[in-house]
């Protein structure tokens, strides 16, 4: 009971830290958008081609950047301003998503756009992890990471659950606009994050 009370108190303390709360909200929107986009594009590609192989090609365009660039991007992210990386990667992903609105989009073009979104995500992911120690005192980092991981897995579940019904209810155009809007809302919240460099404190 004592351990539960301590953990619960730590989580409340973490949520009360404004920069972390803003980052948590920002990541919720961006992760939800990213995961919805995966499933929506699978529907769209299959609808265009009626081919499982074409859907497999889409999945490859998601995963190849992670295999090829994850180590390189991680090294560069350590040297750059994490807040700016989060801001620009969300902005870039939101703008790229809007390009899916072009009518008669070729599957190859979808692959290219998906590859670029996944590439931007390879910068986003290490930056989103590396910024946490700049927002949270060291004694609360474990609780903060627990909240973030819960959010990540929660948005994976929500994204895949919501993608189909949203696509059916709103149609392709408005679903894409929704996904782009989620990325841009995430970008908006990042503007108000002001790291306090807790990582430098003892």
Describe this structure in words.
It contains seven helices and no strands. It is mostly helical and 202 residues long. Mean pLDDT is 87; it is low at 1-7. The protein is globular. Helices cover 84% and strands 0% of the residues.
Helix content: over 70%
Shape: globular
Structural class assignment: mainly alpha
Give average pLDDT, whole number: 87
The biggest sheet, with number of strands, parallel, antiparallel or mixed sense and barrel status, is:
none
- Distance from N terminus to C terminus (CA atoms, Å) equals 29 Å
Low-confidence region ranges: 1-7
Radius of gyration over alpha carbons? 18 Å
Binned strand content: under 5%
Number of strands: 0
Total number of helices = 7
* N-to-C order of helices and strands: HHHHHHH
